[in-house]
Amino acid sequence: MKYINADTIFPEELLREIQRHIPGGLIYIPRPKDAHKKWGENSGGRILVQERNNEIRQLFTAGRTIDQLAEQYCLSVDSIKKIVYGKKG
Fold first, then answer.
1. Please, which pLDDT band fits residue 24 given cuts at 50, 70 and 90?
2. Do 83 and 58 form a contact (C-beta atoms < 8 A)?
C-alpha cells in the first residue's frame, strides 16, 4: 500500500475537516464493503481448498477412514471430521 499526501487528493474543505479530527496523523481508508474479496479469491487458494475438500468427501463416501484421510492429506482428524460431516461449501 502506498501513502498519498491528503492535500493532493482531497478538496481543501474536506482536508480541514479531517485535520480537525486527526491533525498530522495517519489514517487508513478501507475499501467499500462491496469491493472486499474473500480469502483466496485472488490467489485461487479458495478453489483449491474446495476441490481438496470435495475429493476428501468422495474418498470418505467410497470407504476411506478418517484416519487414512488425515494421514493422506496431512490434516488433523478433527479437520477431516469437519470436512466430511460439515456442510458442503
1. confident
2. no
Q: Identify residue 12 by its one-letter amino acid code.
A: E
Residues 59/53, Cβ–Cβ less than 8 Å: no
CA distance 1 to 67: 43
Q: What share of the chain is helix, strand, coil (3-state, %, to 5)?
A: 55, 0, 45
Q: Domains of the chain: which residue ranges?
A: 6-85
DSSP one-letter string for 59-89: HHHTT--HHHHHHHHT--HHHHHHHHHS---
What contacts 70, CB < 8 A, 6 or more positions away? 76, 77, 79, 80
